[in-house]
Amino acid sequence: MHDLSILAIIWLSVFIASFLAHKTRLTPVLWYLFFGSVLVNTGILDKEMPEFIVNFAELGIIIIMFALGFEEDTSNFLKSIKRSWGIAFFGALTPFLVAYVASLYFWEDPNVALMVGLTMTATAVSLTLVSLKSEGLSKTPAATGIMTSAVIDDIASLALVAIMVPIASGQAALSAESILLIIGKAALFFIIVTIVGAWVFPVTKGFARKIPLVGHINLRQILSMGRGEYTILALLLIAISVGILAHYFGFHPAIGAYMAGLIIKKECFDFHQDKQVDFYRQSRNIIDNVAFSWMGPVFFVTLGTKLLYDHDLFVSVLPEAFILFAGIFIGQTVSAALAARYTGKFDWPDSLMIGFGMLGRAELAFVVMEIAYVQYAIMTTEVFYTLMITTFLLNISVPLTIRWWKFKFKTS
Questions:
Q1: pLDDT tens across 67-84, in order?
Q2: Are 353 and 344 in contact (CB under 8 A)?
Q3: Helical H runs in 25-138?
Q4: 401: CATH
Q5: Which residues of 6-28 are buried (b: 16+ CB within 10 A; e: fewer)?
Q6: Which residue, 14, 39, 289, 362, has fewest beta-carbon neighbours within 10 Å?
Q7: How far apart are the first and last CA of the chain?
Q8: Which residue from 375, 341, 367, 343 is spatially nearest to 355, judged by alpha carbons?
Q9: What span, in angstroms and rounded, lies between the C-alpha atoms of 319 and 398?
Q10: Residue 302: CA atoms inside 13 Å, Cβ hemisphere, count?
Q11: In the 8-state DSSP scheme, what is residue 201?
């Protein structure tokens, strides 16, 4: 089958999956994975994707992670850290520990347990916000708390993935020197990106303007080239460039892309006001469309093709999946709610809503799974199936618990 024919089939499945996601109000990611599995198990797609599709999917997840970072308002995020740090810390630590201990008991492999713990750490904020918006709760203090906590979790998870994957994959020995080296590389990468974002990207002013060559770099001028016609090209080039930088440091390019999106500020788009166009909003809309509508979904459909249905295997992992789901459901809800109440000073209705809202797992979880299962073969097929089922159950829980708690929430 021609590569373009495969892409057309995948895009058709994305179209249908998006329609079903709208009807069921579930995250489209679940439907993308489902259709990927259906296509490969019915023989419509081969078990091995051609290199063109693999590379296209890889570019898709890089742009997804860039879009997730780009849509974050860095200033609001920094202002909310003081109230939300406890939710992020305890709301991430508990599911990590639950997943790690359970996985170590199930499969007796510390590397597998480590990757399962990392998979279950980051919250799917997009799923939660869509669920809150559908219930008319997107402007509540709980929604702000969830958003800020989820962003902190994502950044921390990305840092942990960057540090732990080389150890779990055997690329680095488990010694004090190797761990310090990896931590040092991760710290250096994040420092470089932060410096670029703080001094170079906003505008040519302050301390940065005194540096030779660098002092003449102005992101706003680059984005405004050709009356704004090359803004998207410039943004994608930045995403890929920082992704390449992350790769040279030994990390997944998606980590760099997320950081690139996070450091690009809204004031960089203050140009060509005579055109009466909000270039920031326009750019976000285009990037989101590319990431979540037609390029990014190819990554998830392709990942779904790794789910080759095996009845005996599926049935055999159900006990582990249900135990892992129950442990994370209880641990995540309780830890996040208590942290919201006692460190964030939210009231109890808001705190429980935050607990329920932190249950979802989406993009970042699947990035970790792809790295651990596809790229480095750290996870076995049994572990991969278990995580897929667990993730599905957690994501199903988000709209159901939010809708159930809505009535208590509004009357409390």
A1: 877 876 666 666 666 777
A2: no
A3: 28-41, 51-70, 74-107, 110-119, 125-134
A4: 1.20.1530.20
A5: beebbbebbeebbeebeeeebbb
A6: 289
A7: 58
A8: 341
A9: 21
A10: 26
A11: S
CA distances from 230 to 220, 279, 284 (A): 12, 11, 14
From residue 138, how far is each of 74, 122, 193 by CA, in Å?
19, 20, 31
Burial status of residue 269 (CB atoms within 10 A of its CB: 0-12, 13-18, 19 or more): buried
State the Cα–Cα distance between residues 5 and 332, nearest whole angstrom.
43
Residue 131 tokens, joined: 């669920």
CA distances (Å), 41 to each of 22, 32, 106, 200, in order?
25, 14, 27, 49
Cα 374 from chain centroid (whole Å): 17
Helix (H, G, I), strand (E, B) or coil at 339: helix
Q: Distance (Å, rounded) from C-alpha 41 to C-alpha 217?
A: 51
| 67 vs 29 pLDDT, higher one | 67
Q: Of the candidates 108, 23, 82, 66, which has an alpha carbon nearest to the alpha carbon of residue 258?
A: 66
HSE-up (13 A, CA, CB side) for residue 411:
5
- The per-residue pLDDT for 42 is 94
Interval 209-264: pLDDT, tens: 566 555 556 778 788 887 788 999 999 999 999 989 988 887 778 778 888 888 88
Look-up: residue for tokens 């990896």?
A: 182
Burial of 5 per CB tally in 10 Å (0-12, 13-18, 19+): exposed
Distance of alpha carbon 47 from the chain centroid: 26
Residue 171, φ and ψ in degrees, nearest 5: -70, -20
Alpha-carbon separation of residue 39 from 29, 81, 246, 391 (angstroms)? 15, 43, 33, 21
Dihedral class, residue 122 (left if φ above 0, else alpha if ψ from -120 to 50, else beta): beta
Q: Could you tell me the two tokens for 283?
A: 């750019």
Domain that holds residue 272: 3-411
How far, in Å, CA of 187 to CA of 114, rounded? 20
Using CA atoms of 97, 99, 104, 105 in order, give the dihedral in degrees to the nearest 10: 110
Q: Helix, strand or coil for residue 223? A: helix
Residue with token string 């590319």: 290
Please give the tally of structural domains in the chain.
Answer: 1
Residue pair 280/72 in contact (Cβ under 8 Å)? The answer is no
